């Protein structure tokens, strides 16, 4: 009779603890079922990566059930702290709404994480899930006062901290500047001055990543990286008093911006390779084509770009309605669109401007046309992909991969688009069509498509590339 061998039990405890600590906290707890030694010795409790997340427990919107789930979460925190007081913690995350209602436990929780001073990664998120994001509706949000204040002892105990993420958490600015080892900083749902941002970059000479989400009180955004260390910048729906957005960061590689169209000046960022631009919170079209076109002229170093439907509708209204004056160096382009008639010219604009494009991702979603929008050229959506067809340079020589996410099938323009790329992509090797039902349901639409018949239809479309493989999932 064969005896099953538990190979994990043969590993020494120090190595098991390292393995467990590399797992997300939720998964580390689940590992107790893998091995008898893990369960009996409670090795999973020695993980150096701890995450107390209210959303792991609170799933219901019903007040009575939600109250019981929150109580279970708070009891879990209390039990863990009381039974693991000697734990060494390197990464600690606490996500808790309404912390002032349990301020004593909140402070106890933070002290538990920082008492040995070894934490390198600290995340405190006191934002409330009920705070509406206003996605695709409006750029402004209610200015919520921070729900909790960072305890004073943290400033003394975490001198060596490398990653700090604070959401709706008040702090003392001058004391925060003493965290000289910081490599990554994230602020959210709070008032933050641009003076503090520049002071952090100046004082923390190793800072490589900065993220701001739903922050406010910027007179104008003017960031200057004199240390030339900043590589990643994320600005997510922050509120500025003025429309000027200027960044001087010579070694910036990744740039993500969500919010209103500003007067952008990023000439001081010549090495940006990855950009994600989302202007979907704009109120209206407003004739901002020239502003967007001029902004994109500074992005010729890009290799990966993600753009929204607003971008596609506005970019053809710039200095040149057909393409960028200088070609982009983009290898992977992601466009978020519903393939409505207002987006078509922007799609063509980008195909013309990216002659070296290797991968195109089309993320289909809910349609939106901005007020006062006027097409630069007349177009008939029904015939867009079939009449006067042009094969752009990237389709002739470089485009090898096409990904379509959220395919819905009810709109014939989606099928015509696929047929166009099959017939025109001379070097196309892989086409992946992902039918994401969650996107369809969020748009209040039904998936009325027989995958088998759809596949049979695609097989009948003449192929420009003999190497093309099509996957439907």
Description:
With 473 residues, the protein is α/β, with parallel strands linked by helices. Among the domains are: 48-190, no CATH class; 297-473, Leucine-rich repeat, LRR (right-handed beta-alpha superhelix), CATH 3.80.10. 28% of the residues lie in helices and 20% in strands. The strands form three sheets. Strands 1-2-3-5-7-8-10-12-14-15-16-17-18-19-20 form a 15-stranded parallel sheet. Strands 9-11-13 form a three-stranded parallel sheet. α4 runs parallel beside α5 (103-114). The chain is globular and about 70 Å long. Residues 134-140 have low confidence and may be disordered. InterPro entries: F-box-like_dom_sf, F-box_dom, FBD, FBL13/AtMIF1-like, LRR_At1g61320_AtMIF1, LRR_dom_sf.
Task: Considering the chains and any ligands shown, give keywords for the structure.
Putative F-box domain, FBD domain, leucine-rich repeat domain, L domain-containing protein; F-box-like_dom_sf; 15-stranded parallel β-sheet; FBD; 15 helices; 28% helix; single chain; LRR_dom_sf; Leucine-rich repeat, LRR (right-handed beta-alpha superhelix)
Helix and strand topology:
Elements: H1 13-21, H2 25-30, H3 36-40, E1 49-53, H4 63-83, E2 91-95, H5 103-114, E3 121-125, E4 148-149, H6 152-157, E5 163-167, E6 169-170, H7 173-176, E7 184-188, H8 194-203, E8 209-213, E9 221-224, E10 232-236, E11 244-248, E12 254-258, E13 263-268, E14 274-278, H9 289-296, E15 304-307, H10 309-314, E16 332-337, H11 344-353, E17 359-364, H12 393-397, E18 401-405, H13 412-424, E19 430-434, H14 437-442, H15 451-460, E20 469-472
Parallel strand pairs: 1-2, 2-3, 3-5, 4-6, 5-7, 7-8, 8-10, 9-11, 10-12, 11-13, 12-14, 14-15, 15-16, 16-17, 17-18, 18-19, 19-20
Helix pairs in contact: 4-5
Pfam families: F-box (PF00646), LRR_At1g61320_AtMIF1 (PF23622)
Protein name: Putative F-box domain, FBD domain, leucine-rich repeat domain, L domain-containing protein
